[in-house]
Amino acid sequence: MQRARLPDRRPGPEPLDALPGAVLDLGGTVVARQQVEIEGSTGADALAKVTGLVEALHRQVTAPLLGIGIGTPGIVDLGGVVLSAPNLGWQDIHLQALLSERFACPVVVSNDANATALAERSYGESAADTLLVRVGVGVGAGLLLGGTPILGSRFAAGEIGHVVVDAGSERPCVCGKTGCLETWLSTRRIQEDLSGARTDAERARVLTVAGEALGSVLAPIVAALNISEIVLSGPHRVLEGPLATAAMETIRRRALTEVHGDIVLRLSELGDDIVLRGATAMVMSQQLGIA
Questions:
Q1: At what angle do helices 200-225 and 187-195 cross, to 10 degrees?
Q2: What is the Cα–Cα distance from 283 to 20, expressed in whole angstroms?
Q3: Is 231 in contact with 130 (CB distance < 8 Å)?
Q4: Which of 43, 157, 215, 237 is the most exposed place for a label (fewest CB within 10 A)?
């Protein structure tokens, strides 16, 4: 299906506006909270800000510390090495080792979408077979099969944001290609597209196009894995309504009814702290063996 055309814009790397952090108890309740403005920082500067945030939170810990969990954009291996995070300008950053040495405690580092999927499983109501799509500065997915995270042979499972949706599009992506899902669905690109919408109908059309792009990427995943649930995590004002509806309708058009007949597509109810709770779940799983 030919993608509907929206204006092409030339982006640079999309910087994060702020990095949130918190101290949480074993029940996932936030007991202290802090964030650091990233203001377009990348590379060593971004790493220094992350370290500073962890240090500030570490000073607020008043009970024995079980560990530190980090959910970061990008591809992360099992050793906590951030192999690639274009929006932060990171390549082969040994984040887990750096923080573990600095703070002398266990550290777990994972992709933020995978952390989000674990949060839904641990604190939400997700099924054992779930595809969670995280929409933010970038777009990624965390996949659980039988409750087990699927990471892939190169730890890049779920990197759906850089699947090309329309090979004829000139919408540029930070990865260097054009027409990637992220160029329609990242919150920043949606906001840019919505800024030109003058009526409710035009706004709905922008969100519908983004939903169609998402559905076209998810349909073959649904068909291949026969998953029972898709959870969308991100700003509800963007995801609910036309976007979610268009995504589900596109999946139904593109996959057999026998495959998607009872599939559920819903929005996460865990709110803005979902990645923080996912990081807590990772630490508890590693240190306490709690799945």
A1: 150
A2: 17
A3: yes
A4: 237
